[in-house]
Design goal:
Layout: H1 2-18, H2 20-24, H3 28-37, H4 43-62, H5 67-81, H6 95-109, H7 115-130, H8 135-150, H9 177-186, H10 200-210, E1 222-227, H11 230-236, E2 252-259, H12 271-289, E3 293-297, H13 303-313, E4 319-328, H14 344-347
Helix pairs in contact: 5-6, 5-7, 6-8, 10-12
């Protein structure tokens, strides 16, 4: 009887898995209905996105500013400053929000030595120096200047201005394509590491390179959690599904975590994955130049694993693990997978 019941349940599950999606795939409404009634696969993403949006709006309301809004708007101003030709007046719909955010965050954060704060200041100063006169601009230019006059809003005045600039050929690193391609070929997912401690200063250098990666509106909606404490490392390494057979050999795990408070709209919810992945590749290539190697570990969206990771890392509901990266000194006695890649013809499609 019990065996019959299991067979019936198994058959019903297969029907639900294989046939129901075909019925509900016809349009947006039916697809939404399917995930509402028959599958909860997206519930964590939906909750995290909404949590991030609410937190973003809360910070904007309570502080009169969101740090991510200030970053985004400063980058928008930069793009206006570098346009060819530059419009004499631009940014009318967000210059007020930007100045208000700058003043509030400057007073609240008290981080006057941070280079990103210098960038906020320099870009706004360049905007008001070069833009034309307009009633809205004039009001906020006065408010900005009045704030500067009564505050200590100056940073490292000996440094060059953090504003759009011309790249100079003499500043270009002497790295040939052949050398770079050799690095990309040399970097492979390493699963066998030496029993040797990884210095934090080397991780910092690699993260310094990762931080130069492109990011939508320069928001960089991610952070890296570095784990090398043995007990925590052991517990966390039980979670990824791709470390069987070599987990005990990993001396350090670096976890990229996305922060959905960076966005005010659901349209941007996937940027945490895109931006973090761009940075992750730079991070892994940088590690190779420092004598270290890595193995990116897939982190699929599995609810019970997400819950355990959230608890172990003490994550907020609007934070999502994106990728786990094993890091260490490579063991020359350990092999790496050959992993032949797709050829150019299958990677590229030219539209005529």
């Amino acid at each position: 009887m019990k065996l019959l019941f299991k067979r019936v349940v198994g058959r019903l599950k297969r029907i639900a898995h294989e046939f129901l999606p075909r019925f509900f795939v016809s349009n947006y409404f039916m697809s939404s209905l399917y995930y509402l009634v028959f599958s909860n696969r997206f519930k964590r993403e939906q909750h995290a996105v909404l949590k991030g949006k609410v937190q973003h709006l809360k910070e904007s309301r309570e502080n009169n500013a969101s740090f991510f809004t200030l970053i985004r708007n400063t980058h928008r101003i930069e793009k206006g400053l570098l346009m060819k030709p530059r419009r004499p007046i631009f940014g009318l719909d967000y210059i007020g929000e930007t100045v208000e955010a700058f003043i509030r965050i400057w007073e609240y954060e008290k981080m006057k030595t941070d280079d990103q704060y210098k960038w906020f200041l320099d870009v706004l100063q360049e905007y008001f120096r070069t833009t034309g006169s307009h009633p809205k601009i004039d009001v906020y230019q006065k408010k900005f200047n009045d704030f500067l006059n009564r505050s200590d809003a100056t940073i490292n005045t000996n440094k060059s201005k953090s504003i759009p600039y011309h790249r100079l050929e003499e500043h270009k690193p002497n790295i040939s394509f052949e050398d770079f391609y050799r690095l990309t070929r040399y970097r492979r997912s390493v699963r066998w590491f030496l029993d040797k401690k990884v210095p934090q200063e080397l991780i910092n250098k690699a993260l310094l390179a990762a931080g130069q990666s492109p990011s939508a509106c320069n928001r960089q909606p991610f952070e890296y959690i570095v784990i090398n404490e043995p007990e925590l490392l052991k517990n966390v390494l039980q979670l990824p599904m791709g470390v069987k057979g070599y987990a005990d050999n990993i001396p350090m795990l670096v976890i990229a975590v996305g922060n959905l408070t960076a966005y005010f709209d659901e349209r941007d919810r996937h940027l945490i994955y895109i931006d973090a992945s761009l940075a992750n590749m730079s991070f892994m290539l940088a590690l190779e130049t420092l004598g270290l190697s890595s193995c990116p570990i897939n982190w699929p969206d599995v609810e019970h694993l997400e819950k355990r990771m959230e608890k172990l890392l003490k994550l907020k509901k609007f934070q999502r693990p994106i990728m786990c990266i094993a890091v260490g000194y490579p063991d020359s006695e350990g092999k790496v997978a050959y992993s032949e890649k797709r050829n150019i013809d299958t990677l590229k499609k030219v539209l005529q």
